[in-house]
Specification:
Shape: globular
CATH class of one domain: Alpha Beta
Distance between the termini: 29 Å
CATH superfamily of one domain: Peptidoglycan recognition protein-like
Radius of gyration: 17 Å
Helix content: 25-40%
Largest sheet: 5 strands, mixed
Order of helices and strands: EEHEEHEEHHEHH
Number of helices: 6
């Protein structure tokens, strides 16, 4: 993990600031929403499981008819690679799946989606994309005891001291907008970090601090697309508990946090 600090966090995209169909801000790690003015949620370009040669799950992945209430932002807690290629991104997905299946004993990759530092979006867990398209929930293993209500995005890298690349940030905004639009969620309440649910440093201090800007960028993109925001009311009774981050968490080799707990019925 790099020890130097990235550029100062700045106010980025506020609301639906669009010019000629695009809201663009420059600067490393700034949040950019390249909006297309459409009346429906825009599915971002991505690589599907067949593209990265995913293994079949060891047991069927459970899909709930009830849609998720939250979109959870993670970091992979792996090195901040400077290989931004497609080949690296696809290899990353295979590596994550192998670790989750062979190391953790899970049925498949735990997260529904992964974004590489090169800005490549990959479908993770089996049935993740069909579930979003039909408004159901492919249950993952990425946020302990809350997997039945959360869809997760793994962002390649470790963001305790530095922020993600511009390419990753752009794709993250697109992906969050797609998920919030598809599930009728309000970005201001639905987009959370892993540490909002479990005692973990994930998604890193820097990326976590940028969540308010991400929420604003996603709201702006949805408005530009003509998508109604927050059309599905969410009860907060079963929401996050905001547990404290352990003081020794940054000193762990991997500070990614628990992906599965005793209350989870899937693996």
């Amino acid at each position: 993990m790099s020890s130097h600090h990235g550029p100062a966090r700045r106010t980025l995209l506020q609301g639906a600031a669009v010019v000629s169909g695009a809201a663009l801000l420059t600067g490393t790690g700034s949040i950019t929403a390249r909006a297309q003015t459409r009346a429906t949620t825009v599915e971002p370009g991505m690589y599907f499981r067949a593209d990265w040669n995913a293994r079949p799950p060891s047991s069927p992945v459970q899909v709930l008819a009830t849609p998720p209430d939250y979109v959870v932002v993670h970091h992979t807690a792996t090195p901040n690679s400077t290989d931004y290629s497609e080949a690296h991104a696809l290899a990353l997905s295979r590596s994550i799946q192998n670790f989750h299946m062979d190391g953790n004993g899970w049925a498949d990759a735990g997260q529904q989606f992964t974004i590489s530092r090169g800005g490549h979006l990959m479908e993770g867990r089996d049935r993740a994309v069909p579930a979003v398209r039909e408004g159901s929930h492919c249950v993952g293993a990425h946020v302990a005891d809350n997997n039945s209500t959360c869809v997760g995005i793994e962002n390649e890298g470790t963001y305790m001291d530095v922020g993600p690349t511009q390419a990753l940030t752009d794709k993250l905004v697109e992906t969050l907008a797609w998920l919030c639009g598809a599930y009728g969620l309000d970005p201001q309440t639905a987009i959370l970090g892993h540490r909002d649910f479990n005692a973990t440093a994930c998604p890193g201090d820097v990326l976590y601090a940028r969540l308010p800007d991400l929420r604003n960028a996603v709201s702006g993109l949805l408005v530009a697309q003509g998508v109604e925001i927050g059309r599905r009311p969410i009860s907060i009774s079963d929401g996050p508990t905001y547990p404290p981050v352990p003081e020794n968490e940054p000193r762990r080799k991997f500070f990614h946090g628990p992906g599965r707990g005793s209350d989870d019925f899937t693996r």
